[in-house]
Design a protein that fits this description.
about 475 residues; alpha+beta; 7-stranded mixed β-sheet; 4-stranded mixed β-sheet; globular
C-alpha cells in the first residue's frame, strides 16, 4: 500500500477498522486485543507509532526491529493468540518518522488472547468472554460468512483420503522439520488445522466443508459439492473446443498437483539466476496462480474454476466474493481472505506464503518469464488472472479493461431495467432476482444513483425502496 493511501487512512481517525497504538519503544500491552477484535469482526488496519489522535509520533530507531519481531512472533504464538494468525507487517517512513503498519484480515475462526475473546465495536475492543450470547453471535457470523466452515455431522474420517493425509504430513515436515503434525494422530491433525467444528445453531459437531475439500476422496468432495470442478484447458489450435483438457473434480491437494502437471506439460520452463540460486520461473509464477485459483474461490457458487492456456496468454477464472471492481494494483491493494482455513492449510505445507504474497510474487516473476509484459489480476464477481505469454501489438491491459468494463456495464444496465420493471423493492430482492451478491448490487445501485438514474424513496430503516427517476 502506498504512502498516500496510508496517510488517507490515518487522517480518517480510529474506527471500526482502524486502530492506532503508540508503541514507541515496545508493543502496547493491548495491541493483541485489537488484533483479536479485527480477526473476529471485519479485519482492519493497525498502526504502531501513531497516537490515539492520529499524530505520527514514530517508533524509536533502536526499538523498531524488536517491536516488529514481537508483533509477528506473538501473532504466531498459540499461547498468546489462539488460533494463531499470519500477519504481514511493514516498516514505513512518514513525516520523517518510522511507523509499523499491518493489515489484519477478517478470520473465519473465532480468536482469543490468553483465553479472552475480543470483538471490535467502533474504535474499541470489547472483552465478550463472559457474555455467551455475544460469543455465540461471533461463531454464527463466521459460519454464515465463510462457507468453508459448514459442518457435516455425518462425515467420518473414513470419508477422507488416507494417502492425501499422509502426503500432507510429509509436505509439512519438509517445510518445517519439527512440524507438530508429524506426531499427531489423524484426528488431532484435523482438529489442529481447524477442520472440525461445532455448529452453534444446531449443536451438531463434525468435519467441515474445508476438510472435505482439502482431504476428501473424490466421492466425498462430490457428495458435499456436486458442482465442484476445476477445468484445465489447452486451446491453441482447436479454438472452438480444445487441444487438451483435464476435468478435475478431486480434493484441492490433488487438484493442485494435477494443475501443476498440466502447466509442466504445456508451458516452457525458463530458468533464472536469483543471486547464486537457479530457479524455475515457470514454477515461481504458476505455483502462485494455481494456489490462488484453488484457495480464494467462493465455493458456494456453482461457477466452475477455469485454467486456460492459449497461444499468447494463460487465463484463470473463479467465482469471487468481490471487494472491488477492476485491476489490482500490487503497490496499493489490501488482500482479503476468502477461505482462511484452507489458505492456512496450504501455508502449513509450504504451497503458499502469507496473505497477499501471491499477487506480489506473480508481479515480480511474470515480467521476467515473458519480458515486455505484465500480469493482470481483475477483481469482480468472477476473479480473473491473465499471464501474457507473448508481447502483442494490442495492449493486453486495454483488452482486459475493456472486457471488465463491458461486463460491469452490462450488469448495471440489467439492474436498471429490473428496477424499471419491478419498482418499489430493496437491495436483497434485486440481488436474489439477478443471482448476484448484495455487495455487488449495492455498488451498482450507488453508481446508478450518482448518475442520476435512480433514487431512494422513504426511510432506509422503515420500508424505503429504489425507484427509477
Amino acid at each position: 500500500m502506498n504512502s498516500d493511501k496510508i496517510k488517507h487512512i490515518i487522517q480518517q481517525g480510529e474506527g471500526l477498522q482502524v486502530e492506532f497504538k503508540k508503541s514507541q519503544f515496545e508493543l502496547n500491552k493491548d495491541v493483541f486485543d485489537s488484533v483479536c477484535g479485527f480477526l473476529n469482526r471485519y479485519g482492519g488496519h493497525l498502526f504502531l507509532g501513531v497516537s490515539d489522535k492520529g499524530v505520527i509520533e514514530g517508533i524509536y530507531d533502536d526499538c523498531i526491529d524488536d517491536v516488529l519481531k514481537n508483533l509477528i512472533v506473538n501473532a504466531n504464538n498459540p499461547n498468546k493468540l489462539n488460533p494463531p494468525c499470519y500477519l504481514t507487517a511493514t516498516i514505513l517512513e512518514l513525516e520523517g518518522k518510522q511507523i509499523i503498519y499491518a493489515y489484519v484480515p477478517e478470520s473465519s475462526q473465532v480468536h482469543s488472547v490468553t483465553g479472552r475473546i475480543f470483538d471490535r465495536n467502533e474504535d474499541g475492543d470489547l472483552d465478550v468472554t463472559k457474555y455467551p450470547d455475544r460469543v455465540s453471535q461471533l461463531y454464527l457470523r463466521k459460519q454464515t460468512t465463510f462457507i468453508e466452515n459448514k459442518v457435516f455431522p455425518y462425515m467420518r474420517i473414513t470419508d477422507l483420503d488416507k494417502p492425501t493425509l499422509e502426503k500432507v504430513r510429509v509436505l509439512a515436515k519438509n517445510e518445517r522439520a519439527d512440524h507438530p503434525w508429524q506426531h499427531m494422530s489423524d484426528e488431532e491433525l484435523l482438529h489442529s488445522a481447524g477442520l472440525f467444528k461445532r455448529d452453534l445453531q444446531t449443536g451438531a459437531e463434525g468435519y467441515t466443508l474445508a476438510a472435505a475439500l482439502l482431504l476428501g476422496t473424490e466421492q466425498t468432495v462430490l457428495n458435499v459439492l456436486p458442482y465442484h470442478k476445476t477445468d484445465a484447458i489447452l486451446r491453441k489450435e482447436n479454438l472452438d473446443r480444445y487441444d487438451d483438457r483435464d476435468d478435475i473434480r478431486s480434493n484441492l491437494i490433488t487438484s493442485y498437483e494435477r494443475l501443476m502437471a498440466f502447466v509442466q506439460k504445456h508451458l516452457p520452463d525458463k530458468f533464472y539466476l536469483e543471486g547464486v540460486q537457479r530457479v524455475s520461473l515457470r514454477d515461481r509464477v504458476f505455483r502462485e496462480v494455481v494456489s490462488n485459483l484453488l484457495i480464494h474461490r467462493e465455493f458456494g457458487h456453482a461457477y466452475p474454476a477455469k485454467f486456460i492456456i492459449e497461444e499468447d496468454q494463460v487465463v484463470t477464472e473463479n467465482w469471487n466474493r468481490a471487494q472491488g471492481i477492476g485491476n489490482i494494483d500490487p503497490n496499493n491493494f489490501t488482500p482479503y481472505p476468502k477461505n482462511p482455513v484452507i489458505a492456512r492449510f496450504f501455508k502449513e505445507i509450504g504451497w503458499v506464503d502469507e496473505l497477499g504474497s501471491g499477487v506480489r510474487n506473480v508481479y515480480k516473476y511474470a515480467p521476467i518469464y515473458t519480458p515486455g509484459t505484465n500480469p493482470f489480476f481483475i477483481e469482480g464477481d468472477v476473479f480473473k488472472t491473465v499471464i501474457p505469454l507473448s508481447v502483442s501489438d494490442i495492449s493486453v491491459n486495454e483488452g482486459v479493461n475493456e472486457g471488465v468494463n463491458e461486463g460491469v456495464n452490462e450488469g448495471v444496465n440489467d439492474l436498471l431495467k429490473l428496477i424499471e420493471k419491478i419498482q418499489g423493492r430493496r437491495t436483497p430482492h434485486y440481488a436474489a432476482s439477478m443471482n448476484i451478491p448484495e455487495k455487488t448490487i449495492e455498488r451498482w445501485l450507488k453508481q446508478l444513483r450518482e448518475e442520476g438514474k435512480i433514487e431512494f424513496r422513504g426511510a432506509p430503516k422503515t420500508g424505503g425502496y429504489w425507484k427509477v427517476k
